[in-house]
């Protein structure tokens, strides 16, 4: 049991001897724990604070850019809580797939503002431009009202439930925004009904 090995047995293989590669094996020596811990160790307070702050800002900026790109694509996990869910996606697609009178309101107001300053001497131009703005506002409100009625009916038919609270204002606010400024970005083209 405690006998010495005979000298005629094979000598131990030296570590410098050639190793044969075995499939499925890692084929390298296991690193020492001390070396691995030393490689992972970082100081609590960085020695170069300016470089650390710059790296932190850059990392946060990259995260924000990725988050914004995901939100623009309409990825559900990147959306804020008010935009999440299949009902809100349905509302966005409904509004984005049609022309809305409310979305021409802001460009029209800019044109009216220019006309008011340019034609400040002519009272008829000012009156006509103000009446045009109010007419578009009224038409936009009427259009948004009928849009919400149709959307509410479609939501009830598709999901079998009443739309959640705030859906009416969500629909109306989106219909009054210009298409390029909507967030999340429109995922459907105008006139496209394939998503329904």
TrEMBL record:
Keyword entries, A-Z: Membrane, Transmembrane, Transmembrane helix
UniProt region (Disordered), positions on chain: 1-82
Keyword Transmembrane: yes
One protein family per Pfam: DUF3043
Transmembrane segments: 99-118, 124-148
Top-level lineage group: Bacteria
InterPro entries: DUF3043
Keyword set includes Transmembrane: yes
Protein name as annotated: Membrane protein
């Amino acid at each position: 049991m405690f006998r010495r090995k005979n000298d005629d047995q094979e000598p131990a293989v030296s570590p410098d001897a050639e190793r044969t590669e075995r499939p499925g094996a890692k084929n390298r020596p296991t690193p020492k724990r001390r070396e691995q811990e030393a490689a992972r160790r970082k100081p609590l307070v960085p020695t170069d604070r300016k470089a650390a702050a710059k790296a932190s800002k850059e990392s946060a900026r990259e995260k924000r850019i990725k988050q914004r790109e995901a939100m623009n694509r309409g990825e559900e996990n990147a959306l804020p809580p008010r935009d999440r869910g299949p009902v809100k996606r349905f509302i966005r697609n409904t509004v984005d797939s049609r022309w809305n009178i409310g979305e021409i309101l802001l460009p029209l107001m800019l044109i009216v503002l220019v006309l008011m300053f340019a034609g400040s001497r002519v009272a008829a131009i000012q009156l006509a431009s103000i009446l045009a703005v109010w007419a578009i506002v009224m038409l936009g409100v009427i259009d948004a009202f009928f849009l919400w009625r149709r959307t509410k009916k479609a939501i009830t038919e598709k999901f079998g439930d009443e739309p959640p609270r705030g859906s009416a204002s969500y629909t109306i606010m989106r219909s009054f925004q210009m298409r390029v400024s909507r967030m999340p970005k429109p995922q459907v083209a105008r006139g496209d009904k394939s998503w329904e």
